[in-house]
Amino acid sequence: MGHWLQRNIIEPGKLPLLLALTAFVLTFLVTRVITRLIRAGKGPFGNVKAGGVHIHHVVPGVVLTIVGGFGAVASDRHGFGTAVCAVLFGVGAGLVLDEFALILHLDDVYWTEEGRKSVEIVALTAALVGLVLAGFSPFGVNDMSQQELHDRGGVISTVAVNFLFALAVLSKGKARMAIFSVIVPLVGLIGLVRLARPGSPWARRFYRRRPKARARATLRAYRHDRRWAGPRRRFQDLVGGKPDPQALPPH
């Protein structure tokens, strides 16, 4: 494990990325725990206010992201300062994306259905960074054997081809599948074979004059959403908390 960490993380200069990702995930999890305690009226925590204004944690998140980002640019690549800036950036990004839905809607939708977008964007961001971190990078690694060069070259070529597949899958309206297909080829192949989601660029281009294909795509999307809506909602509730019940419109 130590040798792998040195060869694939530290030597290629990926340690700051690992620190940033770790800080990002931990910050999100800790923040969600604290906000759920505040919501339940438990623990010593409470909302931060200044002059009667509720200060959302996206505010210090933006400050930490700016400080960490500019600090990393100005620091030496392998210095201690870069590691500190990477942690600051990860913490800031975790705070910002935890309230991504608030930024998107310009409204306090943290505990609403719209607020689920924050959990989704955090999960997608962590997955993307994790895929980059786990990928084999030959740049910055010294004294590689011919076998290592061959293995890494093969991985890079495979990832490049998979990336093209991912673009096609993304055009079919399958964002999550497209992300993981960059590393897992089978996911991309499945996404290419399956019908596109209604309204996606692929569907608008290739199903425009094929009413049967449009109908089958709509039916498949309906069945898929009905099948996975429950498990996805339960996972989101577990991670981010259950949204407040929506008030019924007046009659």
Automatic annotation (TrEMBL):
Superkingdom to which the source organism belongs: Bacteria
Membrane-spanning segments: 15-34, 54-73, 80-101, 121-141, 153-171, 177-196
Record organism: Streptomyces gilvifuscus
Keywords: Membrane, Transmembrane, Transmembrane helix
Protein name as annotated: Integral membrane protein
